[in-house]
Amino acid sequence: MDIQLMSARAAKAVIRTGLLRVAWLSWGALTLLVLLGGLLLHEYYQAPLLPMMVRLLPLLLIVPALLASRPKGYFWLAFIGLLGAGQGAALLRLPVLWWLAGMEILAGLILAVTALCIARQLRRQGLDSVSRER
């Protein structure tokens, strides 16, 4: 019985590290795409750089919450991922940046789904540790 419990814990640890890797990669991709999109909008449409800074702000402010590994931080990250996907959908109206919009939607959705999976695992792990203490 102990061997099965240990192998289940090892499998959960491997899954969690894979999910964390995907979350950080999609966060980085979304951050770079927002930066690139802001610069391209500035170049092609002479848009000011302030909206790009406003879009980058939540992505940068969430980092301390992610380093703390709390479920609430990952729920917020999922919300930010959905906002990024929504912003990508808004960029679809611009014919020059359709490819950037598609990548931004994809990165935002991957980030949202991955962050929700991590938050679910962290919450279950927290509930398991509370039940073991009783």
Automatic annotation (TrEMBL):
InterPro entries: DUF2069_membrane (IPR018643). Pfam families: DUF2069. This is DUF2069 domain-containing protein. It comes from Kushneria phosphatilytica.
